[in-house]
Amino acid sequence: MQSISFTLAQMILQRAHIGLHFAPEGKIMQQNQQFNQFTVDWRKPDIEIDVARLPGYAADAADVETFRRDGVVLLRGVFSDWVDTLRRGLQRNLDNPQRFAFPCDSNPAGEPGRFFDSYCNWQLIPEYLDYVSNSCAAAIAGQFMDSDHAQFFHEHAFIKTPGTQRATPWHQDLPYYCVDGYKTASVYVSLDQADADVAVQFVKGSHRWNKLYYPRMFDDGSSFNDDRPGAKLETVPDIDANRNQYDISAWSLSPGDSIVFDFRTLHGTGDATIKSMRRAFSTRWLGDDVTYCERPGDTSPPYVDHGMHHGDRMREDWFPLLWHRAK
To answer: Count of alpha carbons within 13 Å of 35, Cβ hemisphere only?
Structure first.
């Protein structure tokens, strides 16, 4: 039996060493504040994941080819059995957001509804840990990345409540992160019914443009790190004003549907009014060519005191290998 154990000795990110500011009781970050600098200590000792017991997944060759070509693929109903579990975990996150890592509200004051997200809570929220430890997400990620292994990076939960009109700006995920490489995947799970006009949209093939764009704030769509020398990024083009120039995919989603997409694929949502709850849960995965990247400016999550240098493999005691290709 193979397992991965996060022992106390491995927990370098202890509160005394984390290098971040911890939120006062009741503090929820707004994105226009200092980016990602308020959180709780999200690491817990003695977490074990039995890799040998993680379920497999038989990826369809046509789906894998779609992912390779478009940078995104839809898998209907693959996580239907996990919807209730993940909803309970997200509700735990919402009931006491200040007790969990990186709670953020992106709706400006006075706007209707709520746009909330939080991440790096997979060790703090039992339902999230259950999903990471017992779902086929790792097997899906590994096969679609065409990797010999799938390394877990972090999870990210989202909610838009009825009445919300705030769009998620078009962006790539990779420039937010302290990693670089071509074998990457987000495994996004819809937890509610979502019509195409409020669901996530993707620019097909944008992962193959060989371009990286400045990350953007979700509250106003502004770029950040664009004042940092050496960033070598571009401003995201105005896709909404020129939609006829792009091949855009958007699907109506049912609870349990999953979208797998490359970290380089441009995606976002429109500003149509949310009529019913829209919740989602995403896990981020790294393939066998991914290494640590020292980016100019802020990164998300802001991992610190990790001891890695630019170009190093991501350390496995922080980012566990949860799937291996069968020999």
So the answer is: 16
pLDDT at site 15? 28
Residue with tokens 């976002």: 268
d(CA 34, CA 14): 22
Strand partners, 220: none
Residue 132 sits in a domain whose CATH number is: 2.60.120.620
CA distance 33 to 73: 34
- Domain boundaries, position 241: 3-48+72-324
pLDDT digits (tens, 9 = 90+) for 75-126: 999 999 999 999 999 999 999 998 999 888 888 778 899 999 999 999 999 9
Inside any domain, residue 138: yes
* ω into 301 cis (within 30 of 0): yes
pLDDT digits (tens, 9 = 90+) for 53-62: 999 999 999 9
What pTM was estimated for this model as a whole? 0.88
Spatial distance between the Cα atoms of 172 and 267, rounded to a whole number of angstroms: 7
Percent pLDDT > 90 in the chain is 69
The structural domain count of the chain equals 1
Give tens-digit pLDDT for 294-315: 998 888 888 888 899 999 999 9
| Contact present, 49 and 151 (Cβ < 8 Å) | no
Classify strands 115-119 and 104-105 as parallel, antiparallel or unpaired.
antiparallel
Angle between helices 126-134 and 83-95 (to 10 degrees): 150
